[in-house]
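Supplementary notes for students who missed Thursday's class. We covered one full example, reproduced here. Read the sequence, then the structure, then the short commentary at the end.
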Amino acid sequence: MKIAIAQLNPIVGDLQGNSEKIRQAAATAREQGAQLLVTPELSICGYPPKDLLHRNGFVEACDQAVLDLAPETDDSFGILIGHPSLWDSQSGKPYNSASLLACGSVAATIHKALLPNYDVFDEERYFDPGKDQSPVEFMGQRLGIHICEDAWYAEPETYYHLPPIVRKDPVAHLATQGVDVFINMSASPFEVGKFARRRGIIQRHVSTHRQPVIFVNQVGGNDDLVFDGNSFVLNAQGELVEALPGFQEDLQTVDLDSLPSPIEVQPRREQELLDALVLGLGDYMRKCRFTDCVLGLSGGIDSALTAAIAARAVGGNHVHGILMPSRYSSQHSIEDAEKLSENLSLASETVPIDAVHSAYETLRVVGDDLALNPTGLADQNLQARIRGAIVMTRSNTHGWIPLATGNKSELAVGYCTLYGDMCGGFAALCDLYKQDVYAVSRYINEIEGREVIPNSVIEKAPSAELAPDQFDQDTLPPYPILDAILAGLIDLEESPAVLAEEYPEETVRWVVRQLDLNEFKRWQIPPGIKLSAKAFGTGRRMPMAARRFTGFEETSS
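Structure (token representation):
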């Protein structure tokens, strides 16, 4: 049998548009000689649909959209489509389902058994779990169809802790009934290292059941999640024989009777990060119907990388950079911002802020507050907020989405200004540590073979330039140390006391305190792109008003 893998980029809730994508994929699959087209999880509505599933009539409309696609099939061609469904529901709560369309009708429907309820997933809120799946027979083949998480039972820490009465491996259950090929329909979001992790999970199933597996994944950005595609096929020996490209739509057909020779794919970290950032920002803009974006250009590394990502996502002529020098801005920063704008072919302008800044001082807009400490925190934040107001004014006037430029390191410890550099409609770098900001910037220059981001921006000491002779390292630990401690605390959830064995305890305590104190700021950042296992937001839910447990012997205040 020839099976076409459709790596699709749906828009959540766009049943008509998503159905048309599937129709087009079906036509292409037929041209390639395929007998079966496989689409990702919930491909009819896009993933994650969230509380759209609670909207009256939505699930019924998804079921009808599936029925409307059935005429695209006949006795020689079928479509396997993911959708929410009320078919067979006893409780009135929908299933996360997959239906085989063949001969002009729905030939079979299976329901997802394992509903993830961790990290960014909340499927128990929306779906009932399916029970007792069976292989689906199609054109002489027994298909072991299962949906995304149903394969993740192979992750020991996820399901092996459950008591035996609850514990159930959907893939093993299918295998006991006899399967010729397993098909996993997924909407598995990206994080660094996810490709290797998925492949390892599927390989463990293959090593046990000795049958090939087709893994079909969604691609595209939906809100804060990016789906990387990276669909693949493993033969019965667990070898990779087909791999679709990451971060783009694609359709490939494989012949189960003549699988290709083994190949090797090892995505580079910087390439994955860059692709995820570009796709995440570009899709957010396109799916929210923005054509242009606007951001402040400071001459620093964060705004430079944000601008470069935006230019790749929507084209430099749709990126509006505003240089807003203050009395403290260095000449080299102004020149760096101008050079960046030229390199990216941005639509840029210069709007000095000193006149507005001086007006606050001379008109005593806030009384004597600024005079009490002329270069203090209030004055520094005021400059950031003046810049934020200018960016927002351009946004409101022209309908451009404003981009915040803060990175994960700064957001973690509160080195950012509410209603200043934090204001915006999207925060592309909010899950990218400072060290990775530099790594991705260097990578862009490497693959372009030229200085897209000026080397002077990459090499100079970072500074907010909001006070005389100001540098980040006057306030923060060196970024390599800060990022390592933050990654331990956030991504690995390590104990501060354990981290203090490797890094200076005073530094670890300071980072822990800043991380906890600034939770209120992170609740107010714009949406961004999840790149790691623990992105700020839905994947890491911390209270704001709380006494913190630090892991040290004494309780910190």
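Commentary. The chain has 18 helices and 19 strands. The chain has a mean pLDDT of 91. If anything here is unclear, bring it to office hours.
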